[in-house]
Design brief:
By secondary structure, this protein is mainly β. It contains no helices and 25 strands. The two termini are 24 Å apart.
């Protein structure tokens, strides 16, 4: 597959989302959210001092941003950031990716442990926190090993979560109140480190393999049915473009190299369009 560079000179791109003809993403290096259109012009949306990660929108179009280091969910109001929810009492460690459903309910993951502590902490289960459109937060699962990229099926009934240190994708039924039930393994992926994910119209998941230098298309059950080799680690992906057939890839050497500004977002065209959320 022929890849093209969409944006370069980045610190570490995360949380790519396609909306209103633009690719939106967070960048650890600049501690800001950015958007880039088909013309290649990159626009700074807003700075997030405690490092931005997952992105999503409320039904009325207001942007939600995960603020990692202080474990908060922020809301962009008329150009200013305000606190949507304080997750510091619910999330064990730094928050990361999330998905927002059609009702404006956000599902936010977190690391669960500090792998850079001295001595390093060992991986342990972490929480998925549900935040309502009005900012009420509650834990809806606490058995996920590094909950990371998340996606919601087109019918709004299923949440799929990447467990980076669990080497699997896990699915839940979304209840009418936003709670989660019927926890089950959607795909076992031994030796893989699933990070950001997105769904396509055939029900497959594209997942960034954070250590595998590839983006994989996986069918339910775990069969890898397609693969894009990225040469460097791939941390997130998103299907977008006019027909949702453009696969955007966030590629970097690692978040610890954010200051070097060597990360890029690349794009490749695929046959099956995107579906569901994000």
């Amino acid at each position: 597959m022929d890849r093209r560079v969409v944006a370069g000179g980045l610190g570490f791109a995360e949380g790519p989302r396609w909306r209103d003809g633009q690719l939106w993403f967070s960048d650890f290096g600049s501690r800001a959210v950015w958007a880039v259109g088909d013309d290649g012009e990159v626009e700074r949306v807003v700075e997030v001092s405690a490092r931005p990660s997952g992105l999503g929108w409320l039904p009325d179009g207001r942007l939600l941003i995960v603020s990692m280091e202080d474990r908060r969910l922020l809301r962009l109001e008329n150009g200013d950031l305000v606190e949507h929810a304080d997750l510091s009492g619910l999330a064990t460690y730094m928050c990361n990716d999330m998905v927002v459903d059609a009702h404006g309910r956000a599902y936010v993951g977190n690391f669960g442990f500090d792998r850079r502590a001295n001595p390093p902490q060992q991986p342990r289960p972490a929480e998925i926190v549900l935040v309502t459109p009005t900012g009420e937060a509650t834990v809806v699962d606490d058995e996920v090993m590094f909950p990371n990229g998340s996606a919601i099926t087109p019918d709004g009934g299923t949440l799929i979560v990447a467990e980076t240190f669990g080497g699997r994708l896990t699915a839940f039924d979304i209840q009418p109140d936003g709670g989660l039930a019927n926890r089950r393994t959607w795909a076992n992926l031994p030796g893989r480190f699933p990070d950001g994910i997105c769904l396509d119209a055939e029900g497959a998941v594209w997942l960034a393999d954070a250590r595998g230098r590839a983006c994989l298309r996986v069918a339910e059950g775990g069969e890898v049915v397609d693969q894009v080799d990225t040469g460097r680690n791939c941390y997130a992906c998103m299907l977008g473009g006019a027909e949702r057939r453009t696969l955007f890839l966030c590629i970097a050497d690692g978040s610890e190299h954010a200051g070097a500004r060597t990360a890029v977002i690349e794009a490749v065209e695929v046959e099956v369009p995107g579906a569901g959320l994000p």
